[in-house]
């Protein structure tokens, strides 16, 4: 299992605590220090069943600077969004957890984190 975290994020710390309490084996990726590539983002989005704009933090200052709220949200716009996420990882919603079976969630709620824990 891998979890993408920003250590300054309370939701990330909470998710890590839940994984620890469950005795889950996982790897932490501090995605601001080791940003995902466009290829990795595409793979995660496929597993999530989401589009890049669905995991974008549009209230971040860089989002306002880029005027993301004005960007299109069509298949033709997808690569532009993915490139923005790869270039500016602060825009990525967190934490993202990928379980060993490929199940992937944005772990912002206890229920989402619970869903990837082994039985």
TrEMBL record:
Q: Which Pfam families match?
A: ArsC (PF03960)
Q: Which PANTHER family match?
A: ARSENATE REDUCTASE
Please state which protein family the record places this protein in. Answer: Belongs to the ArsC family.
Q: Please give the InterPro entries that the UniProt record associates with this protein.
A: Arsenate_reductase, Arsenate_reductase-like, Thioredoxin-like_sf
Q: Which UniProt keywords apply?
A: Oxidoreductase
Q: Spell out the Gene3D superfamilies in the cross-references.
A: Glutaredoxin (3.40.30.10)
Q: Which GO terms describe its molecular function?
A: arsenate reductase (glutaredoxin) activity
| Protein's recorded name | Arsenate reductase
